[in-house]
Amino acid sequence: MSYILNADCFEWARGMPDNSVDHIITDYEYGTFFPFVEFLRVCRGTIMTFCSEKDDPLQGNKTEIAYWVKTPSTKNFSKHIGRFVEQIHILRQPEYDVFNGGLHWSNYVGVYSDMVEEKGWEWKKPLSLMERLVRIYTNLGDLVLDPYMGSGTTLQACKNLGRNYIGLDIDETWFEYCSENIK
């Protein structure tokens, strides 16, 4: 059961029963509202989101923090220094706590430097990084929600690794993009 919807994630979550998804893995727009309480209600397992060091989308409830060290870019930082590190806040809930071993030890250090391979993507996450996170924190056949699916990298990782997914995005452009490209 995998599908995508052009929907507001907060409204969608409010209509879902408790524990209706196994995990939430996402990359929300930093500095905006993250409906943590609703996500906590609908998710029985891991909730994971990328964020800046200024944000606390899990409202202090994280059990782990990992880091994605992005390749330095040549962007103009005339008004402030650039950020080449994004935090990954992770909440592993005891009801369905998944942590898969068996990979090389370097997959578990919590500091990742994967690169986006395609040109023209400012916010996209590397597929290799998303596959690593999906592999570690979910099981085969689990249902993963990405409430801010954007370009669909989390969904592609789930598809590649035999996980079911629900992708949501309020922006019709991303919904249409994923409709065409997640096959």
Summarize the structure.
It is built from 5 helices and 8 strands. With 183 residues, it is an alpha/beta fold.
SSE layout and pairing:
Layout: E1 3-6, H1 9-14, E2 23-27, H2 36-42, E3 47-51, E4 64-69, E5 85-91, E6 111-112, H3 127-137, E7 143-146, H4 153-160, E8 164-169, H5 172-181
Parallel strand pairs: 1-8, 2-3, 2-7, 4-6, 7-8
Antiparallel strand pairs: 3-5, 4-5
Helix pairs in contact: 3-4
Description:
- With 183 residues, this protein is of the alpha/beta class.
- It has a single domain, classed as 3-Layer(aba) Sandwich (Rossmann fold).
- Helix content is 23%, strand content 21%.
- It has 5 helices and 8 strands.
- The protein has helices at residues 9-14, 36-42, 127-137, 153-160, 172-181; strands at 3-6, 23-27, 47-51, 64-69, 85-91, 111-112, 143-146, 164-169.
- Strands 1-8-7-2-3-5-4-6 form an 8-stranded mixed β-sheet, with helices on one face.
- Helix 4 links the parallel strand 7 and strand 8 (164-169).
- Helix 3 crosses helix 4.
